[in-house]
Amino acid sequence: MIPSLTADHVVQLAYLIATALFILSLKWLSAPPTARRGVLAAELGMALAIGGTLLDRRIVDYRWIAIGLVLGSLLGVPLGLVRMTAVPQRTALSHAFGALCVTLVGSAEFYLRTPAVPRFMMSALSMEVILGSLTFTGSLMAAGKLQELLPQQPITYKGQNIVTLLVLAVAMGIAVRLVLHPEHAGLFPLMIVISLVFGVMMVVPIGGADMPTVISLLNSYAGLSAAAMGFVLDSKLLIIAGALDGSSGFILSVIMARAMNRSFTNVLFGAFGKVQLSAETAHEARPLRTATADEAAALLAAASKVVVVPGYGMAVAQAQHKVRELYDALTRRGVDVKFGIHPVAGRMPGQMNVLLAEADIPYEGLFDLDAINPELTQTDVVLIIGANDVTNPAARTDASSPIYGMPILDVDRARTVIVIKRSMSPGFAGIDNELYYLDKTLMLFGDAKTVVADVVKALNGGHLSA
Ligand code: NAP
Predict the structure, then answer these.
(1) Is the CB of 316 under 6 A from ligand 1?
(2) Catalytic position from the list 210, 294, 370, 389
(3) 348 in contact with ligand 1, CB cutoff 6 A
(4) Is 389 tagged catalytic?
(5) What is the CATH number of the domain that holds 351?
(6) What is the pTM for the complete model shown?
(7) Cα–Cα distances in Å, from 225 out to 19, 21, 91, 199, 312?
C-alpha cells in the first residue's frame, strides 16, 4: 500500500529537489555553455525552497511574510537592474542583507530560548550572529568602497592588525561565556555590537583593488552563518545551501588570490591598492607611439592572426557590441580572431566572459590565460581594449612591482600591440605599464566604445583593401 502524501512529505521532497538543484547549479555555472542552465536550476531550487518553507505547518499567520515578500521584491527588482560594472557592489549588498537576516533570526531564536539554551545550540547561535554581524557591516563597507561612497584607499594605523584581532577575540570570548552561561543574556547584544564593529575594522584597511576578493570571502562567511542558522533551526536545506555557499565563496577567493599571485594574508592585511599617483606624472614625458583608428584598422586588416584582450575599460564603456562588430568585420576578411581572457580582468571573475557572451561572441573564440599565452608569439596584432594590469610585463620582470608574480597575458611577445584606453592613467593596481613605451606598441587614445566603432567604420568603409 502506498502511504498517503502529507504536506510534510511534500515539503521534504521540495527541499530534497532544491538541494539537488543547488548542487547541479554550481556544477553548471562553472562552464560558459551550461551557465544559463545553472542560473535556471538555482532559481528553480530557490523557488522550491521558499515554496516548501511557506507550506510549513508551523506558520500561523502569513501577513508579515507577505509584507516581507513585497518589501523584498521592491528592493530586489531595482538591484537586479544595475549595470554590469556595478555588479560587485550589488553582490556585496545582497550579502549584507542576507547576513542581517541571519543575525536577526539568530537574535530572535536566542531570546525565544534563553535562559535554557543547550550548549551546542548556543555555539551554533553565537557563530551565526558573529559571522552574520561582521558580514553585514563588512559587506556594507565593501559596497561603499566599490561605489566610491567611501575612500578607496586603505586606511591603516600602527598595530592595526593586533587591535582588529583583539576585537574579534573579545567577541569570541563573549560567545564562549554565553555557551557556558546562557543565562547572561545581557552579553548577547554586546557580542553583536562588537562583531558589527569588527566587520568595519576588517574592511577599512583593505584597498578598493582587493574588494572583489573580500566580497567573495564575505560571501563565504554569509554562507557559513546560514549553515550555522541551519543547525539552530534544524533545517538540513539551510545547512547544505549555507555550506555550498560558504565553500564556493572560499574557493572563488582562493582562485582570485592565485590569479593575482597574492596570499590571503596579503589580501586581508597587506593594504594593497594604494594608488601610486606618481606613476602617471613620472612617466608622462616618455616617448610613446600613437595611432589613429584608420591606422589601427589597416594593421588589423593586414594581419592573419589577431588576439583581442578585453579588460575593465571595455566593461565601463559597454563596448562589447562594437567588439562583436569588429570581430565580424575581421573574420569576414579571413583574419583569425581570438580573445585572450585573464581570470581577473575587469572587477569580478568571469566579467569578460559574460560581456562577450552578451554580445554573442562565440565561446569557442574565448581562450584563457594558459591557452592563449603560448600563441601570442605567433600573433600579428594584439588589440588591448581597456585592459591594463593584466597585460603589465612588470609582473614578470620587476621584482619590486606590487603585481610581481601575478600571471599575466604575455601580450608583449606579439609582433604588434595596439592599446585602446583614454589616457596614460594606471589600472586598478595603480602602477605604470612598461608595455606602453615599447617600440612595438601603438596607443589609440579614446573611449573604448567610440574607438572600436571608428575602427569598425574604417574596416567596413571600403577604403581598406579586403
Ligand atoms: P585595469 O588594470 O583596472 O585597467 C583598466 C583600464 O581601462 C585603465 O587603465 C583605464 O585607463 C581603461 N579604461 C577605463 N575606462 C575606459 C573607457 N571608457 N574606455 C577605454 N578605456 C578605459 O583593468 P584590467 O586589466 O581588466 O585588470 C583588472 C584589475 O582589477 C587587476 O588589477 C585585478 O587584479 C583587479 N581585480 C580584479 C578582480 C576580478 O575578479 N576581475 C578582482 C580583484 C581585483 P584610462 O583611464 O586611461 O582609460
Answers:
(1) yes
(2) 389
(3) yes
(4) yes
(5) 3.40.50.1220
(6) 0.80
(7) 18, 21, 17, 14, 32
